[in-house]
Amino acid sequence: MAVLEILQYPNKKLRARSSEVHVFDSTLHTLLEDMHETMLARKGIGLAAIQVGIPKRILIINLPQGEEGTQHPEDCLEIINPVITHTEGSILWREGCLSVPEFYEEIERHANLTLAYQDRHGESKMLQASELLSVAIQHEIDHLNGVLFVDKLSMLKRKKFEKEFKKALKSEG
Ligand code: Y12
Ligand code: CO
User: Fold this and answer.
1) E strand segments, 45-160
2) Which one of 97, 109, 164 would you pick to mutate in the ligand 1 pocket, going by the greatest count of ligand atoms within 8 A of its CB?
3) Any catalytic annotation for residue 140?
4) For the whole model, what pTM was predicted?
5) Backbone angles phi, psi at 89, to 5 degrees
């Protein structure tokens, strides 16, 4: 297993449209395991393959559980070739992204959704999601289409982000 480098904004590779997975082999399983180790090492709850430079339609989500906020590996969702088939309602959630460190902002998303996807063996699955899981799925599917959560900000909030980003770059020296 390995902790991989996470691409950071404004890396152009994050803008790629990821392609479908057709081969469900040990290379895919190793990538899923490395993504999980990388996400936990960086204190994330969701990660798309493009964030580690692999333009494939793969994402993982491992939500914290209980008062301790423990991320149990057995709860990690491995989602391949996802398609949202139904959405309902809207929800505001303060989002962050491992590719856009130190910036958090409220984004409006669908409150509930139904998702069709494949697991690591290529088996077709469906799930229903609400609240944080629904938000996380939409955030990660956006990555597969080259979209970052900061693209969804109002003009005013986007300017605030650009200003904070430039300030952070300067302080890095
Ligand atoms: C709700 C909102 C966003 C998502 C997508 C998944 N996003 C993350 O997992 C973001 C993680 C994150 C972690 C950070 O590190 C720490 O908090 C220690 C972080 O802070 C820095 O990079 C400095 C930023 C983002 C799903 C659901
Ligand atoms: Co992200």
Assistant:
1) 46-48, 58-61, 77-97, 100-118, 124-130
2) 97
3) yes
4) 0.97
5) 70, 180
H-run or E-run covering 11: none
Which 8-state DSSP code applies to residue 70? B
126 Cα: distance to centroid of ligand 2 (angstroms): 22
Residue nearest to atom 17 of ligand 1 (CA): 43
Cα(57) to ligand 2 centroid in Å equals 14
Rounded to an integer, what is the distance from CA 90 to the centroid of its chain?
19
What domains sit in the chain, N to C, each tagged with a CATH number? 12-172 (3.90.45.10)
For 81-94, how does the pLDDT look when each residue is reduced to its tens digit (9 = 90+)? Answer: 999 999 999 999 99
∠ CA 81-128-60, rounded to 5°: 45
Contacts of 120 (CB under 8 A, 6+ apart): 24, 28, 29, 32, 78, 80
Residue 123, pLDDT score: 98
Which amino acids bring their CB within 6 angstroms of ligand 1? 43-46, 93, 95-98, 101-102, 132, 135-136, 139
Among 8, 45, 171, the mutation site with the greatest number of ligand 1 atoms within 8 A of its Cβ is 45
Sign of CA dihedral 61, 101, 31, 122: positive
Which residues, 6+ apart, have CB-to-CB distance to 157 below 8 Å? 105
